[in-house]
């Protein structure tokens, strides 16, 4: 089987790979709308605004993969790690479809005002088990926005509803380091001086069955909370632009049934978090982003929803969780080099220290580093290689490294790193420490410390 899979990959060298997260797409959509709002109606080179009343955008990935035994592939992910390197390592079909209606009466156009509504639906089918598919659908976004209504601050936008608000990730491992998506409302893009802007939002967690990266939650432990989010951004600092955030989160406490008739009490908490994001365009083809975050209590996860503490099994051995005692420090850096001729690259590094608030086995360290170079043979054919390693160490618990390596030939429309749609074949090999035996890909490789998977996959957005 292993030889057959290797032959499949070699035989499909002309096929494709590439990667990008939905957040990149959303940023492009927002930039497109913002550009239209500042265009002069007399600019004959610009597309007519009346032709953009309705927009349909989307993202999806789908494919087929198998492990070395011929069973359905599983993802290789380190225990207690916040993410995995995703090339050739995504064991689900995931779809997002966004519908946006722009209200552009002549009076609004004349006054440079925009109103719009947006709906985003999602669908996921995990494929990690041969016959245990748990298909899930979700309403990811349902909100309205208005820009240009404040004459003194024409760029300011008011919004309310359910939104991917500050839904920021590192593309190579789809790690959402700041994820304030949820129900709420606020104002953003309020100019403060010549370049700096500020935003404020009141947010509550969007409670459904899907996590930020499109996978299903592993347990029922996710609760709503109230978060007040304040941001200063587009601050010029010489080498780039700086964004600062401050969050105050209040969780009123709740209870959880563990499924065996036992009740777990999750205590109330008032938490706070602060963060900084430095974006630097080093050249026209090279961009770097550095972040540092600290959070405590109900705000420790830098999200708009309360999620299960890491390093803890939610079972009958626990009857109370002190949310107020948690803490997290996170530092990330990611870089993209995309000159398209002939080599492009993305790379990331992450360090995180987390305290789950328990007396024992409380602290977890996570260190992650990975890179994905892509060699472009011409405008359509390229070859990607991804190598990533995740080290985790829980006090009194498991410690080790998961290394994942993927070779992926690809076809895509242009010789650019994030060009889509992409058709890819992949061959993935992973190895992990003895201390992680039975914890990585447990269905296919439960008694081993290495494994492989191979398959085909497509990814697209528009």
From TrEMBL:
What PANTHER family is this protein classified in?
CRYPTIC OUTER MEMBRANE PORIN BGLH-RELATED (PTHR38762)
Origin organism is Pontiella desulfatans
In the UniProt record, the gene name given for this protein reads: lamB
Q: Name one GO molecular function term.
A: porin activity
Stated family? Belongs to the porin LamB (TC 1.B.3) family.
Which segment of the chain is annotated as a signal peptide? 1-18
Q: What is this protein called?
A: Maltoporin
Keyword field contains Cytoplasm: no
| Top-level taxon of origin | Bacteria
Q: Classify the protein's membrane topology as the record does.
A: Multi-pass membrane protein
Per UniProt, subcellular location reads as: Cell outer membrane
Q: Which UniProt keywords apply?
A: Cell outer membrane, Ion transport, Membrane, Porin, Signal, Transmembrane, Transmembrane beta strand, Transport
Its cellular-component GO annotations read: cell outer membrane; pore complex
Which Gene Ontology terms describe the biological processes this protein takes part in?
Answer: monoatomic ion transport; polysaccharide transport
């Amino acid at each position: 089987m292993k030889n057959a899979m290797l032959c499949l990959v070699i035989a499909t060298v002309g096929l494709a790979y590439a990667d990008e997260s939905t957040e990149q797409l959303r940023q492009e959509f927002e930039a497109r709308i913002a550009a239209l709002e500042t265009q002069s109606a007399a600019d004959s080179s610009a597309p007519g605004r009346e032709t953009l009343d309705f927009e349909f955008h989307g993202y999806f990935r789908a494919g087929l993969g198998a492990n070395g035994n011929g069973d359905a592939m599983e993802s290789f992910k380190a225990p207690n790690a916040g993410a995995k390197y995703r090339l050739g390592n995504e064991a689900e079909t995931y779809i997002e479809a966004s519908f946006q209606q722009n209200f552009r009466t002549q009076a609004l156009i004349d006054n440079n005002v925009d109103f719009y509504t947006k709906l985003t639906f999602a669908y996921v089918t995990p494929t990690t088990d041969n016959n245990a598919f748990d298909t899930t659908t979700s309403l990811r976004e349902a909100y309205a926005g208005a820009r240009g209504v404040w004459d003194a601050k024409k760029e300011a936008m008011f919004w309310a509803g359910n939104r991917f608000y500050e839904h920021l990730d590192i593309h190579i491992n789809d790690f959402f380091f700041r994820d304030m998506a949820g129900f709420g409302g606020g104002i953003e893009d309020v100019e403060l001086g010549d370049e700096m802007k500020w935003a404020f939002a009141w947010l509550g967690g969007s409670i459904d069955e899907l996590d930020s990266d499109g996978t299903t939650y592993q347990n029922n432990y996710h609760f709503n909370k109230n978060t007040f989010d304040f941001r200063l951004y587009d601050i010029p600092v010489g080498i780039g632009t700086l964004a600062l955030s401050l969050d105050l989160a209040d969780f009123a406490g709740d209870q959880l049934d563990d499924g065996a008739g036992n009740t777990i009490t999750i205590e109330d908490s008032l938490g706070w978090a602060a963060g900084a994001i430095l974006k630097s365009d080093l050249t026209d083809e090279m961009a770097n982003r550095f972040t540092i975050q600290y959070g405590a209590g109900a705000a420790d996860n830098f999200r708009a929803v309360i999620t299960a503490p890491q390093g803890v099994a939610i079972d009958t051995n626990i009857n109370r969780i002190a949310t107020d005692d948690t803490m997290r420090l996170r530092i990330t850096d990611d870089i993209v080099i995309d000159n398209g001729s002939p080599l492009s690259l993305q790379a990331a590094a992450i360090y995180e220290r987390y305290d789950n608030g328990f007396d024992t086995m409380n602290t977890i360290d996570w260190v992650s580093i990975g890179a994905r170079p892509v060699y472009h043979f011409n405008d359509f054919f390229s070859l990607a290689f991804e190598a990533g390693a995740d080290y985790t160490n829980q006090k009194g618990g498991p410690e080790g490294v998961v290394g994942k390596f993927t070779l992926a030939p690809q076809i895509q429309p242009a010789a650019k790193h994030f060009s889509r749609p992409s058709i890819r074949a992949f061959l993935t090999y992973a190895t992990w420490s003895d201390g992680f035996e039975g914890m990585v890909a447990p269905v296919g490789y439960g008694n081993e410390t290495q494994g492989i998977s191979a398959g085909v996959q497509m990814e697209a957005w528009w």
